[in-house]
Amino acid sequence: MSAPNKSYDPVEVEALKPEEIERLRDEAFAAFAAAGDLDALAQAKTAHTGGTSPLSLANREIGALPPQAKAEAGKRVGQARGAVSKALAARQAELEAERDARVLVEEAVDVTLPYDRVPAGARHPLTTIMERVADVFVAMGYEIAEGPEVEAEWFNFDALNFVPDHPARQMQDTFFVQGTTPDGKVTEGDESGVVLRTHTSPVQARSLLERKPPVYVVCPGRVYRTDELDATHTPVFHQIELLAVDEGLTMADLKGTLDHMVQALFGPDMKTRLRPNFFPFTEPSAEMDMVCYVCRGESVGNPDRPCRTCGSEGWIELGGCGMVNPKVLTACGVDPRKYSGFAFGFGIERMLMFRHNVEDMRDMVEGDVRFTRPFGMEI
Ligand code: DAH
Question: Which cofactors, by name (predicted)?
Fold first, then answer.
């Protein structure tokens, strides 16, 4: 800052000359106008209005003037600074408006574009049905039990009272897993004692060995048989198994449980019926049918209203069931004099076929999402 000069001569204070002030003001105007965006304007703002800008420095010079000159110079500099901040505010508003307009265009959303270019997958209806069935029993206090798909022949057959020469063990039904004997020889055919499980029933034996009665389990899972893939067979399919072992269980408990299941899955007026059958692991054993889900029995003896789903029989075969054979309880360390049990098992693919009119099993295994998606999402 210059020293106060008593004999005021405005010429001496160069920075306060009217032309100089005008020049500084016009320079600021030009810099603001030249700023093409808000960043550039911020820089111009510092350069022309900041503490070390020429106009701020000129303002400080006023203090050095003799009192009679201060007012005039102050007015001049003040007006120039006022005009500069107005110009700055105007340019600021202009650039902000430009930016907002640009953002609106650049960030506009084209609502006609596909909303999702990566098509979502869908849950397979077999998974959904298995979970639904399992949920019916989980709600009744049953546990979900699982076992391996590569299973010991003992669990798959022997523990379940299949005699050694039972036809189901034969090569045409069962996939035997090749193994190596302790002396390095590769096993042939059915020598290995290891199979791909042919049903979920071995999980019954595993559950009994793992737990102490009372045992209430449901076992959903994948099973294997040496069938060719065609419209009604697949070598890999799914079953759900149920086992209840407790004191005093009878066939009436089995029937009540089956009726409850079909009512929960297919509607309150559903029921099941049992037909005598044979399974080595149940005694007595039965085949279980449920009222036809489509015609509800109305097609029986009624040629005007034939039903394709049940062949106008009024009943659909669900699977097998029975009272657990005491030999199975004994093999699994459960005393059959104290405990009794019931069990059933059925195929999920078949249930999907009649519940949803799927006519060809191959559609279920091909993995085409166009088959899966119409079943919708169930969580
Ligand atoms: N495991 C039998 C099959 O695959 C089905 C079955 C029958 C399961 C009777 C059971 C049962 O639990 O009690 O054909």
Answer: Mg(2+)
Binning pLDDT at 50, 70 and 90, where does residue 4 land? Answer: low
CB of 345 closer than 6 A to ligand 1? yes
pLDDT for residue 1: 53
The whole-angstrom separation of Cα 255 and Cα 270 is 13
Contact assessment for residue 251 and residue 342, using Cβ atoms and an 8 Å cutoff: yes
For the chain, give every domain's residue range: 10-106, 125-375
Assessment of whether the complete model's pTM goes beyond 0.85:
no
Report the percent of the chain where pLDDT is more than 90. 68
Name the amino acid, one letter, at 336.
Answer: P
pLDDT over 70 at 224, yes or no: yes
Length of the chain: 379
Mean pLDDT calculated for residue range 202-223 = 97
The number of beta carbons lying within 10 Å of the beta carbon of residue 87 is: 19
User: Looking at residue 172, what is its pLDDT?
Assistant: 65
**Pocket-testing residue among 344, 348, 350, 351, ligand 1, by greatest number of atoms within 8 A of Cβ:** 344
CA–centroid distance, residue 189 to ligand 1 (Å):
25
Who contacts 105 (Cβ-Cβ below 8 Å, separation ≥6)?
A: none
Q: What is the DSSP letter of 181?
A: -
221 C-beta closer than 6 A to ligand 1: no
Give the distance (Å) from ligand 1 centre to CA of residue 345.
5
Longest dimension (CA), the chain: 132
Q: Are 46 and 84 a contacting pair, CB within 8 Å?
A: no
pLDDT tens, position by position, 6-33:
555 544 577 788 888 999 999 999 999 9
Which tokens go with 247? Answer: 């004191």
Kindly state the DSSP code that residue 3 receives in the 8-state scheme.
P
Q: What is the mean pLDDT of the chain?
A: 91
Does 210 count as an annotated binding residue? no
CATH superfamily of this structure's domain 125-375: Bira Bifunctional Protein; Domain 2 (3.30.930.10)
SS3 241: strand
